[in-house]
Structures
1.
Amino acid sequence: MNFTRWSARLPGTQRRAAARTEQAVAATPRGDGSVPAARAERPSDGAETGPPDGAVGLAGLDELPAREVLDRIPALVALVHGADHRIAYVNDAYVAAFGPRPVGEPARVALPELDELSLLPLLDQVLRSAKPRTVKSRKAPSGRSYTFTCTPVTLPLGGSAAGPEEGGGVLVFAADVTDHAEAAERLRTSERAQRETAVTLQKSLLPQELEQPDDLRIAATYQPGGTEAAVGGDWYDVITLGGGRTALVIGDVMGRGVRAAAVMGQLRTAVRAYARLDLPPHEVLQLLDGLAAEIDASQIATCVYAVHDPNEGSLVYASAGHLPILVRDENGTIHRAEEPTGPPLGTGGWLHTSGSVPLGPGSTAVLYTDGLVERRSEDIDEGVSSLERALAGATGTPQVVCDRLIRALGVAADHDDDVAVMVVQHPARTGTNAELFRNAALELLGGVEAAPRARAFATGVLASWRFSPELHDLGVLAASELVANSLQHGTPPMRLRLRRTDRRLIIEVTDGDDHLPRRRRAEPADEAGRGIAIVATIASNWGSRRTPGGGKAVWCEFALPK
């Protein structure tokens, strides 16, 4: 038996100690020329010393100096031989761990602990292949954990010649790794607790229910990464801006764990606050850029902020290092909104700009984070292309499209990154449903005739839309006051626009002056200054914003009775 082959499998100091012990034993003569019998096979006084019935005699085993070494090492050692793995030897450590084992008995009967640990098939494999195998950190019935190394050995047999398997054996070496296993389990438990905390925080900071604007149908999905992946800072939001316009936001904090989720929550809150200012998308990102650096200079975030205007049939957006929005138009053609884009939030020193992509009736837009399309084995552009192909064939409600895209991109429960997806549909309306969505506009050239023309136009349009007399009169009054305010404080060109949806009536006046009106208290002697106050009193909501080409828009809304 080659002890060098055995010692090569012993870990660390045990291997070196075993080598030194072998040398010492080899140099020390013994009176009887043999070593002590194995603990499992030491006979009592007067008992027979031959092998039990069914055992195979192993010639010269007692003369091997390795026996003395194996009896003393703290690791568990067992030696089995033959096709049914009959026990040839177990050392003291093995006996202390599992109790005495009878020599000559098959392992399936005499070594039940190996059977419970599913090591018997491994013994068969080692015996057949003559190659060593190792299994790490198996917990025994006693509660201790061991790493088992099974090494093939060649044993000299007494009697007639035997086949390869009969003459072969397997040395089972088990190192106690209980302390390491328990430390690893404590670490995994701590990591699971931290991950659960991060997931809970992440989900609590995401919108529990998406706002549903009049003109769009929206669904979003967030899926955290698998148990081995740390949770990131993906987020999304939908913000109704008034006047029929809707802001769509999706972003990703470049970090992991609770800190990333906390930064995400602060950015999402800031986006909602900035959105109320009704600024262009690039100005919102400019404000977020400075805020991100103040929150945590070591973390950056990507973000897309887009605004949908049903009157324009477009999606105006700005991107801070985020992946492009994908839009499938009513003909099924996929458009990728790639430009313009700037660096991520928190880097500073960059002036963001806005771009536009059509989003008319019948179109579907997809906003997403990199976890959906990024794979270690391929370029991210390949992932975006795969998403385009999946979007081309995905139909149904926004939630159905979300689920289909996630399945098509192979995102499973064990995915290595978290994923956020938002699907936005601008449905095409026909028949009676189309009657609920109407638009009407009048160009105003200014002058004394502008106000009467606006009142007459609003009166006719609202009457044709069959509103109640009360709502009709309130709408005409609001249109008249907004036009009068624009004539007094604005500049041409001017436009009056009326829009109705299934939920509200929207009245908007635009002009060429970018000075935004504000509500103020007029003094009793003032002859003007009450127009915006009147509108704010009679309408459900009102607001103003600067338009991209210069000038401003002032609007108000009336909720329709259900």
2.
Amino acid sequence: MDVMGDKATLFETGRFVQPSNREDTDTPDEAGEIADEAAEELRQRLAAEAGDVEAMSVLGAMLLRRGDLDGAEPHLRAATAAGDRAAANNLGVLLHQRGYADEAAGWWRIAAVAGSAAAAHALGRHHRERGDEPAAEYWLRQSAEQGHTLGAYALADLLEHRGDAGAEKWMRVAAERGHREAAYRLARALDRKAAWEADGDDGVQVLDEVEQWYRQAAARGHRRAALHLGTILEKRGELKEAGRWYLTSAKDGEARAACALGFLLRDAGDTENAAVWWLRAAQDGDGNAANALGALHAERGETQTAERWYRAAMDAGDVNGAYNLGLLCAEQGRTAQAEQWYRRAAYAGHREAANALAILLLRGGDETGAEPWFSKAAEAGSVDAAFNLGILHAGRGEEQAALRWYERAAAAGHTEAALQVGMARLRDGDEQEAERHLRCAAGGGSAEAAYRLATVLDARRPPEPAHELGEPVHRRSECEEWYERAASQGHRRAQVRVGMLAAARGDVVEAARWYREAAEAGSRNGAFNLGLLLAREGSEPEAAVWWTRAADAGHGRAALRLALVYARRGELAEGQRWADRAVALGPGSVTERATRLRDALRQELSA
């Protein structure tokens, strides 16, 4: 009669189910179940009193399940004496609950030898609790090999604890038989394995299996499995289903799931509900949620509330709380407090706090104190700190040391660092390496890198081929694309260059647009070229306005153009003034022409 012994124990615990306290008024279904149980108990009791061994065993199990240990014990002892192995197992459970562990083990051994898988499982756990792992493994293996799910899981747990490779096999057996904790732990083990797997079909298959086991455990109510399943789905972009699993896990009390659900809602624009879940998670001790609440209140200008939540995050052991407190104080100009919180986070290993602390010290003139923190942050993986170290060394003229840090930051994807490396390689004449780094920086959004890359490609560009009828044929080159990208990002020299390329194509409107944009942003070359374009189109008065702007910004050729304009108008004194300005500004060719013009105007004025 193995069935009662095998089914009488609670899932995962080895203990019997204790009945919940019922209300005075039962539903019709509950009342019917109670009547059925009472009738069954009466039937088994009558059979047991008539000497039926199986009835004694069943009745003892029923009473044990209900918590009536005194009523169950004589029936179980009588059935055990008659050789019922399920009764022997259940008697062991009863004695274990009474605190007689050694006597319980004796009855489990009798039942296990007689072939009870449940008793072998209980005996194995008994030996493990006492530190006798060889005996524990023997009995758990007996249980597992007989198909006992809890035995398979307990064996897997023991083997995993010892680092035995056979653990995965038995964890899989337990998971396949519906053990939710086994399914979760198998998923975790495979997840860690997948992190080390190379990309390819094998890696994809492992990830698929990971998701399958998380899903099985989550469907059986495992809240951490639901959290991990939600994470997988969110990364894959399946946000709706991810949210459902986060919600399931959060309702079961998983604070991390409540926090993740909050972020999902925030990204969807629902900050009010996000705050509700963050609050729930933060109250359960989730530091990440407390930080999120702090950031939310900081964005609303509620700095005191933000500070309170950042402190709560810090108290929960989340070092980001101290870092965020530092940021909050820095934004308010409370430099001393900011330094205090940055230091606290930095000493705890927060790399961005170390970088922020170094910046704070550097701005305060303490370069000596800043450098070690930059180094600590950079060695911990802060890309910004590596770049800042490059700036620090470059400021001292230590170009090689600066380049090493720039290269380190560039290798981690820092756009401005890649630009600095590209410029350094250009100075060294290594055009191939320069181009590689400039492409990285330009691709990362650096307008300066896009412009410099365009100039490198422009220098290689062959002359435009001629049409067979003698008309130039324009083909859009890669360098033009990079010039235009830089120009669209507001790079003034790129805007001027794009304007020049448009003018060369005869597209006066496009050229004027780019020249004007550059000029209005302060480019003297843009203002000068716009003036030339307007003068050619017959708008010399407007051209003079832009030349004046360019000349005032130090453009010698613009000053010379103005001198010529005023000389033609007969305004000799004004012409002489601009000629003097052109002589002073240069360059050499302009100075030479401006000198001759100035002397001629002087003679004319003195005549």
3.
Amino acid sequence: MHADLSRITHRPERHYSAVVAQQGRVQLDADANEQAAIQLFQARTLAADLIGQHGGPRGATGFKIEMQGGSRELDDLIISGGRYYVDGILCDATRPEPGVPVPADGSAEAGGKDGAGDDDEPAATPATWTYWDQPDGFRDPERPGDRLPTRFPYLAYLKVWERTVTAAEDPALREVALGSAMPDTAARTKVVWQVLPLPASELDLEDDSPPVDDVRAAFARWAKKAGAPASRLAARGERPDQADDEPCLVLPDARYRGPENQLYRVEVHDAGTAKDATFKWSRENGSVTFPVDALDGTWVELATLGSDDKLDLNVGDRVEFVDTAYTSRGEAEPLLRVEELDLPGRRVRLSDEPAPGVGRRPELHPFLRRWDHHESTRRTKESSRTGGLQHGALRAEEGRWLPLEDGVEVYFAAGGTYRTGDFWLIPARTATGGVEWPTDPARRPLLQAPSGIEVHYAPLAWVQGEQAAPDLRLAFRPLSAGIPAADEAALAAEAEARAEETDAAPTATEAAGPAVGRSQTTAAAEAAVDEGGAG
């Protein structure tokens, strides 16, 4: 999550059930965030244990898929509204209802239920989404890779993950009463879902019309492989060779040489193996952002240039042009360099125009995200071999320690496969002169899988054409049931009294055996009546 955090302390393996505040102690953001994480972990674990890997409530199960072909238009998928759970995470496909506006003249018309006339009634809200207009899909018909496969069959599946939203992307989160110069307050975590196609060739199925259970099993194997992290990183604080030449702003023997506490974020930019993969890093967890007001070629007008010299922009900084669609698609466009600043006009000139389709739509809230790496000015054998930056990011060199700054170093394990957006967090502390990172008893840093992005998957339908697609969803019934009019003891007493009063042969239902839940006394009495009737 790109947010201004001190650190993340939630560790599920430690089995903490609550954060307990103590009187007279400092309260940190990490404490409140861990409490929220504990509750969310417990709730989602319980839901997954009861529901299974995925499923929806019977009668309100969402994400039913129907194929809609077109002779001239592109193929489409109809996505029904409702709810569905994936690994305990609630995904809601219900469209929000639009509000009813007040009439232009302010008068109440007889024809409008809420004061609006018949002509002012809003159009009915569709009960479904489509593949092309799903809220967080941002599929583009002009991109061939976004189009649905033309070869049948293929599998439609649900991809789910979470991302952080700050006031840079959702201005409604900012409390305007604090003033325009005040920073934003708390961020939000959002569940993102997308309905995407998966070619049948990816599932290694021998038949184009396999049983539904076989499709689910094949998809489970694919999802396990797709969701498993395939890269590892370690971090350490190492006293730089030139530390003796620096001013004594920190302890002379400190390994981390920075003057302030930081939360370093190392994030994969370009995906692939080490030959192609790149990474970027930030000392502020990637939280330094600048909302964009206007874009004119390489000139960008910003809402602000930063609140202080620590959170501002300078010539030479590397920035990423971001908006909601770019984030949801998980893309990796080249990072740009700040070439010129126009302080009075709140403008910056970038080294190139943003990629097509990014930052041109104000409703997607574009902004610049600052990263803190720079191209090294120190020429070494390794830097000459790698050729410096690639697309504005650093190359992910494996098998050796890579310096970031102030003694912080990272190490990529050999043989990794990297995914755009995967990240690691490294807290650096001046009090210890080092970084917080797991180590073995010999104090050697341990290789760790990425902290995120954690992606979840669920199969929805096996699309074979415009005919009905076999449904791969699962549904569950509510656990609650009706309460009987009387308890078991009263029901048993009533049955025994009826038998004594009538002194008649038992009915067919009673002859079948004692009812479930009746007492042993009642069952014995009925058995005695059966024996008497048989004699």
